[in-house]
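Treating backbone geometry as a discrete language has practical consequences that deserve illustration. Part of our work consisted of pairing the sequence of a single chain with a tokenised description of its backbone. We regard such an encoding as a compact summary of how the chain folds. The amino acid sequence and the backbone structure tokens for this protein are reproduced below.
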Amino acid sequence: MKTRISERLGIEYPIVQGGMQWVGRAELAAAVSNAGALGMVTARTQPSPDALRHEIDRTHALTGKPFGVNLTLSFSAKDVTYDDWIRAIIDSGVKIVETAGNNPRALIEAFKEHGITIIHKCTSIRHALSAERYGADIVSIDGFEAAGHPGEDDVPGLVLLPLAADRLKAPILASGGICDGRGIAAALTLGADGVNIGTRFMMTKESPIHENVKQALLAANERDTILIKRTLKHTGRFYRNAVAQEIVAMEHRPGGATYEDLQHLLAGSRGRAAMGSGDVHGGLICASQAIALIDDIPSCEDLVSRMVRECRTVLGAAHKAADILSDSYA
């Protein structure tokens, strides 16, 4: 499956693992890369730049294939610096970095001096155009279906992707709600050069989250995600558990809620503990609307092979249908 994405990243299939907080660790990233896609280590899952160096070294030991590092920037902090994180990534020999969360301009300049390919995640066309102008090599377009932060515009991928294909010159990754070959085929048809998949890889054998969490998501349907922090203009999509529902309830109480009011519920340490211990109501758990389409927990190798096979089948059927329509109107 050769596209601009697979050729640029040096991978077999144009599939990139999402840079998921608490999930993107060495075992999962290496398994995804070994399956022919691009695994992604999440930098700020680690407590320090030195810990990130160790995690990258572990990933190198598990795969000889390309993998990337996700470095998500703080949404609101103005005085945060990333110099130590940037240096850790550069020194570790990583050649692909995914940035997200805020303006990536300074990071793009720093990484490109070292020949590193930059993927930047965006939730709108205006931000995608800015990322391309700043020098991002690949732009990942997050639709409203996505886990984590889908932006404030509520535009789904079915609209965002063809808009991006029309307006961007850079290769495009489609992100949000994609979990099988049908989704990949749809994304390619809409103009994407590849896909970014998070929740589906979270529900694999190599994923480091607790089995209880995997089983809870496995049993979920299309209504089992919830949007939090809408009143704070920093919308996030998460699994509809007790913590997420309490946040929304506090946002809609008289007078609303501030970040300070919600901090005990939003704490990343709480979400990490929940995913590690299996307490599905103990903290926030990211999940896209794709959880409704997931019905097993395969290995990454089996999952990637299946998705590629399904994609080829769907595209082949679409091509055959187009031939039939063409003949009928001849």
